[in-house]
Amino acid sequence: MAQRLALQRLLSLTPRGPLTSYGRAIGTSAGRRSTFNVQDGSDFQDRVVNSPKPIVVDFHAQWCGPCKILGPRLEKMVAKQEGKVLMAKVDIDDHTDLAIEYEVSAVPTVLAMKNGDVVDKFVGIKDEDQLEAFLKKLIGA
């Protein structure tokens, strides 16, 4: 009886349903669906290089002040595109190999990729108008 009560309490505290996966909540906003963190080289290959959609790749670092300004601004602008473009976030401290491969010498560096090829790039902070123009050029709008 005591074991059953303990199990019921545990189950009542455990999140269940479609919004959880392995104990972590999955965001459902458009911004969260269009933005993802790159996990490793093969994840980058699968989700960025092989993507059928245009991709914005944000090379950043936790210690980078300008990255903390640009990142949310860029995520917001990508979310406004309603799925026409995706955003991959790459922490250069965790993925030095990717930073070297894509010749990232300063952060933030943002690449625009289509069909696995880099088609545009910028380094540093941009305002919302500049980001919108960058995204429209990538999408072809």
TrEMBL record:
The keyword Zinc does not apply. It comes from the Eukaryota. Residues 24-140 form the Thioredoxin domain. It comes from Menura novaehollandiae (superb lyrebird). Belongs to the thioredoxin family. InterPro entries: Thioredoxin (IPR005746), Thioredoxin-like_sf (IPR036249), Thioredoxin_CS (IPR017937), Thioredoxin_domain (IPR013766). Keywords: Disulfide bond, Electron transport, Redox-active center, Transport. The keyword Ribosomal protein does not apply. This is Thioredoxin, mitochondrial. GO terms for cellular component: mitochondrion. It holds the Pfam family Thioredoxin. CDD domains: TRX_family. GO terms for biological process: cell redox homeostasis. GO terms for molecular function: protein-disulfide reductase activity.
